[in-house]
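Follow-up to my post from last week.
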Amino acid sequence: MTTSVSFAPQEGVQVAARDRLAVALDVPDAKSAYELVDRLDGACRWLKVGMELYYSAGNGLVETLAGRGYSIFLDLKLHDIPNTVAGAVRSVTGLGAGLLTVHAFGGPAMLRAAAAAKAPGAPKLLAVTVLTSMDQSELSAVGVPGSPADQVLRLATMAKASGMDGMVCSPEEVAAVRAATGPESILVIPGIRPAGAAADDQRRTATAADAIRRGASILVVGRPITKAPDPAAAARAILDEMESA
Ligand code: C5P
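User reply:
Got it. Predicted complex:
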């Protein structure tokens, strides 16, 4: 099964907010994931399966959720030598995931190898630029001079030239990345927080409306929805905010 993913702006065509919302299923096991999906009540098209859930529930969960009609964003943040990352792309081909992440910091050779490994049924590839939990002091602690914005732009431009379909960056950089990488890039944006909500461990955040206005394709929202007493209502409030933008 494959999932078509296209967010290139076409005149007169609006992509519905539901199609642009990914809820992060950051839960420890399949049972908790299915319970959360039931509580979301179809409010989003995309479900993000990250390391915590994938390492515990694996491909069976991805195939089941895709079979239920959801689009799956496999957020595995691959970062290894080119040969290994290419093999991982082949291993998840055909599962029904629409999007897969790799770390841009793996460099052009790794990204090109990932892109070259795509075959029919492979997910689109997104390069993670700088984690939204990192600020300038975190970046400098790993030896990267300059601001997160400079580093995001450098990595996004390199990722585009290396064959990536899109990028993950914070809402603070999305306008610059959109301008640098063009309308066809799929820009997936975590770090979304309703006005006044807790930032948790995120450092570079904005509201859903601001992220959409700045050029985001898909918003990733975790705790503001999944920890809410009524996750479906919290998701619908974010959809309303997206529509208003
Ligand atoms: O709970 P919260 O809304 O902060 O969740 C954000 C989600 O987006 C998490 O699943 C996290 O792994 C993911 N993510 C991120 N920053 C990135 C890439 C992915 O926060 N750069």
